[in-house]
Design a protein that fits this description.
CATH superfamily of the largest domain: Probable inorganic polyphosphate/atp-NAD kinase, domain 2
CATH topology of the largest domain: Tumour Suppressor Smad4
Largest sheet: 11 strands, mixed
Shape: elongated
Oligomer: single chain
Number of strands: 17
Order of helices and strands: EHEHEHEHEHEEEEEEHEEEEEEH
CATH class of the largest domain: Mainly Beta
Structural class: alpha/beta
Number of helices: 7
Strand content: 35-45%
Distance between the termini: 35 Å
Length: 289
């Protein structure tokens, strides 16, 4: 029998008041089921008059055993990064676009949540990537990503030169628009548009996908998830490059900087309805027929 949940945190799409109607239905539903509710403080700023207890992300992670995310995959990515250290389960209600991660529709929200609250659900763990930027041997920035870490050019129409190592072993020199380092979860995101393969979410693997490489023989490569990936930005002086995590966190890079990527310490617990089928989602979202 799967765990049942007693206290739920609600996280809505950032700065989007249009999710208010769904949030109200959700809050009323949970109250009727005698589930204690806490509202994320950023969501409370745009959804006023709710009458719910408001908490920051850390408190929500410490005190809730379930987080219900109402928005798109971007909203769930943000929630996952902040809540992973607290071992809290996440379920997504899709009000975005593709919705590979937020797989419950608003129309079936109450039905699916009834099953989940009764302990009838599937759970899978997804690993995150931990990204560290080193400059002259010093750690100057770090972050985590559920989808991908991307080293890429910006602000100039010129190729980026990088050097990549896998567990200390030289992989290649690359002249391109950048390099995507993706988890299996992120293989249906930016990596897919760059020509990378779709990986089953349960795989312990990392995929490296070059972005518009100058040499056409530079192809995506899949490596074991336990590897440490290091990307060195080449060139002289100021580099028009940056590293981006999940398309949401950006940090400027200089020539000589090293971007080190490895599996993060904590994993994300995703909750799905019992009829969840990853391959059905692929067929539906990608119009495979």
């Amino acid at each position: 029998m799967a765990d049942t949940f007693k206290r739920a945190g609600i996280i809505g799409k950032y700065a989007d008041p249009t999710v208010g109607a769904t949030l109200k239905v959700l809050a009323d539903y949970l109250a009727a089921r005698q589930i204690e509710v806490m509202l994320d403080e950023a969501t409370a700023e745009v959804w006023t008059g709710h009458g719910l207890n408001v908490a920051n992300r850390e408190t929500l992670g410490q005190e809730c055993d379930l987080a219900i995310v109402v928005g798109g995959d971007g909203t769930l990515l943000n929630a996952a990064r902040s809540l992973a250290p607290f071992d809290i389960a996440l379920v997504g209600v899709n009000q975005g676009h593709l919705g590979f991660l937020t797989d419950v529709s608003p129309a079936e929200m109450e039905e699916k949540l009834s099953e989940i609250l009764a302990g009838q659900y599937n759970e899978d763990e997804r690993f995150l990537l931990h990204c560290t930027v080193l400059r002259d041997g010093e750690h100057i920035n770090e972050s985590v990503a559920l989808n991908d870490v991307v080293v890429h050019k910006w602000d100039v129409a010129r190729m980026l030169e990088t050097e990549t190592y896998v567990n200390g072993h030289f992989l290649n020199n690359l002249r391109s628009d950048g390099l995507i380092v993706s988890t299996p979860t992120g293989s249906t995101a930016y990596a897919l548009s760059g020509g990378g393969p779709i990986l089953q979410p349960c795989l312990n693997a990392i995929v490296l996908v070059p972005i518009c490489p100058h040499t056409m023989s530079n192809r995506p490569i899949v490596v074991d998830g336990g590897n440490i990936i290091e990307i060195i930005v080449r060139g002289s002086g100021h580099s028009h490059a940056q590293v981006t995590c999940d398309g949401q966190i950006n940090f400027g890079l200089m020539a000589g900087d090293r971007v080190r990527v490895r599996k993060a310490e904590h994993k994300v617990r995703l909750i799905h309805p019992v009829d969840h089928d990853h391959f059905h989602i692929l067929r539906n979202k990608l119009n495979w027929g």
